[in-house]
Amino acid sequence: MITYEYPFNERIRTLLRLEDLFEKVAYFSRSEGPAENHVALVTLFEILEVAGRADLKMDMIQELERQRQTLLGFRNNPDISEAALSGALYEIEQASAALLALTGKFGQTLRDNEWLMGIKSRVAIPGGVCEFDLPSYHYWLHQSAQFRSNALASWTRSMLPVRDALTIILRLLRSSGRVERLRAVHGQFQRMLGGTTAQMVRISLPEGEHAVPEVSANRYALNIRFTHPPEMEIKAKGCDRDVGFELTFCNL
Fold first, then answer.
1. Tens of pLDDT, residues 56-80
2. Mean pLDDT of all residues in the chain?
3. Where does residue 37 fall: left (phi above 0), alpha (psi -120 to 50 degrees), or beta otherwise?
4. Tens of pLDDT along 209-232?
5. What distance in Å separates the CA atoms of residue 38 and residue 51, rounded to the nearest whole number?
6. Residue 175 to residue 233: CA distance in whole angstroms
7. Global pTM exceeds 0.85
8. For residue 69, how many other CB atoms are within 10 A of its CB?
9. 86 phi and psi, to 5 degrees?
């Protein structure tokens, strides 16, 4: 299945973007190649930009506390595994404590590194990190794979509390919904929401289904239009056939 996620508010949109960026950093940091490690560093700079909102940390702390209180309500419930519940509560408490321990602006360790900020300023320029522009960075890229790996791990370390917290929040959000199996007649689907609160919708299709969902939504209605995947420079066209899909409304 291919799953498409559509956030209904800016907070969830930011968390999804950060999740995607952290996954890229982890992937490219594991590589031993200089080009891949360059991508990991550039992605760290993107995380700095996306997570720059001053209220992001407090938003996540408040959400984790809300989820902790919800889970506490399941204590002594015979249908709930006490071991699983205790593990979930411990994970949330650890993530909250790590966030509270963060001081200063997000990514301040990187921001205080003039060498890294010099690279960051050049990255915005097409081809701006060539060896004649940044010889010291060219030197760094030619150090051993272990040296570069250790440096990337050190620069990423201060960001890990945010990654861990958003991982928990998004996992709880994704597991909050109930899957519905539906069909879009002639590629069109609409549902009136009547003011129903939802933070994200997930749309899943089989990998062999050649259709891509285009979503528009507000608190009153959800509209999904399925289009044919574009090929090369051919503009995507709407499907004129029925499309089966799975729909999940997620809300914490």
1. 888 889 889 988 888 887 777 777 7
2. 87
3. alpha
4. 888 899 988 778 889 999 887 764
5. 20
6. 38
7. yes
8. 9
9. -65, -40
